[in-house]
Amino acid sequence: MWKPNKPCQLNREFDVDNREKPIGVFDSGIGGLTVLKEIINELPYENTVYLGDTARVPYGIRSPETVIRYSFENTTFLYSKDIKLLVVACNTASSVSLDFIRKNISVPVIGVIEPGVKAAVRKTKNNKIGVIGTEATVKSNSYTNAIKNMDASIEVYSLSCPLFVPLVEEGWTEGEIVTSVAKKYLGGLKDMGIDTLILGCTHYPLLKTVLTEVIGGDVRLIDSAIETSRKVKMLLENLGLNRENNFVPRREFFVTDSPERFLKVGENFLGEKIEHIEKIAVSS
Amino acid sequence: MWKPNKPCQLNREFDVDNREKPIGVFDSGIGGLTVLKEIINELPYENTVYLGDTARVPYGIRSPETVIRYSFENTTFLYSKDIKLLVVACNTASSVSLDFIRKNISVPVIGVIEPGVKAAVRKTKNNKIGVIGTEATVKSNSYTNAIKNMDASIEVYSLSCPLFVPLVEEGWTEGEIVTSVAKKYLGGLKDMGIDTLILGCTHYPLLKTVLTEVIGGDVRLIDSAIETSRKVKMLLENLGLNRENNFVPRREFFVTDSPERFLKVGENFLGEKIEHIEKIAVSS
Question: Which residues of A are less than 8 Å from B55 in CB distance?
């Protein structure tokens, strides 16, 4: 298991009075923008700072040890931006590194797994839930374990769909090819009779139309981005940390590779213009 | 432009007498194994050492600066293995970092661009050459520039095909989906009337059947892996560095992430069993 080289510097007193501090969001790259988008929908006045680790994307094919190391570096960077709450907007990172991050940072940390799981468990009627995600997410069994922890009687069918991410990044989110790919992946899952399907990767909400068409309208899709943003809102309100005034929020974006590609693809994900973007160096 | 932190330690006297030294090959990940496979075909008795930078794959979507940094780190590692020749078996790295590497290392360095270009220029009859590769390779204009340098009258049509790599890694190298993707990408190229097509990415040789079917049997496909291995053989012979005896060669493999996935997918690429594999740390 990888450990930070230096004794961890992150623990410090959590200042509950400062509502102006931004919400920190990190992802392995562009996908987390779907989560940020929903956070902005729920909490339009919050300041936000987003880090996309584009120099090391994708996390979904990497080992847990490597993902933990990358996640911790991202966390350290966002913590230096004086955030009031951290959202790990990457399913792979949430799957394998959330415990490690929580142990080493004193602000609240929200991952994208638990909110999706809670919604799915609440909504399934026949107790058969499907989960789709990257190779690493599926292999980690995080979704299965989290669902089973809530209700051991639920049957979970999980499946990795590695081509969905490159298809979305290519912008091929509808049409014959993506439909064929979805049919090939989801055929087996459909036969299992699931009534609820968790989209366990931040890219997948962009495929909702095709997925609904292929898996059938009677299967309920759970969008982790929406569920996560609701949890962020609830938690900030509970902590009295939500920013209530109507001032224009500050949106900062950081990437670890040059911003060009992020800007080109990212605005589709976010649904608005990206300004104030900067490249930062990570240890790699 | 990124520069190595330390003064470069790589230049040293090139020992022309040692035929036992291995050929070093690096790639961003698994793809370079198609190049290693052809080198082994051409030179079965050579010792080889392969580095797949699986913790930072894919290079094709990264900025030139980042690719140069990664390439130099890979070079430094292989140089520490006392190689007699370096093959940069990644098109993206060959496109953007070959000059930088050559300036900083005293053993001969062979990339995958030039051998493919020479073969294509030799073989085209109508002076219309197509090139397919990753986004970074195409954007770098390396193929176009290299072809134009050899013969300015040749028309070059280059095109990035980002979905080919994930398709190959998923093992979907034939069938309806990959054929549809190939048709979508290559339609325009076909209309240009090219008679020669360079496969400018190490993954693409695994798609030869589909590509021939889609682009038509009258278009000659240039496999850079084969052309590169011929150049390696020729250069070693010219330098009197080829290993002639019939001892069993030593094959070493190194990766920067855990070897599991590399082993699973890699053996398809290499066409033989991978033994002696080890994970090493890069700076990231």
Answer: 56, 62, 66
What is the full DSSP assignment across A169-228?
HHT--SSHHHHHHHHHHHHHHHHTT-SEEEEESTTGGGGHHHHHHHH-TTSEEEEHHHHH
- Give me the CATH topology for the region A20-111+227-279: Rossmann fold (3.40.50)
| Neighboring chain B residues of A63 at a CB cutoff of 8 Å | 257-258, 260
Whether A181 sits inside 8 A of B177 (CB atoms) is yes
Return the residue of A nearest to B61 by Cα.
Answer: A261
Q: Identify the closest residue of chain A to B284 by CA–CA distance.
A: A284
CATH architecture of the region B113-223: 3-Layer(aba) Sandwich (3.40)
**A235, A249, B81 from A16: Cα distances, Å:** 12, 19, 54
- pLDDT tens column, A199-219: 999 999 999 999 999 999 899
Same CATH topology for A20-111+227-279 and A113-223? yes
pTM tops 0.95, yes or no = no
B57, B87, B90, B211: the active-site residue: B90
- Is A66 touching B (CB cutoff 8 A)? yes
Annotated active-site residue in B85, B147, B201, B214: B201
Each domain of chain B, given as residue ranges in start order, spans: 20-111+227-279, 113-223
Calpha distance A134→A142 (Å, rounded): 12
- What pLDDT, in 10s, does the model give residues B168-213? 989 999 999 999 999 999 988 988 999 999 999 999 999 999 999 9
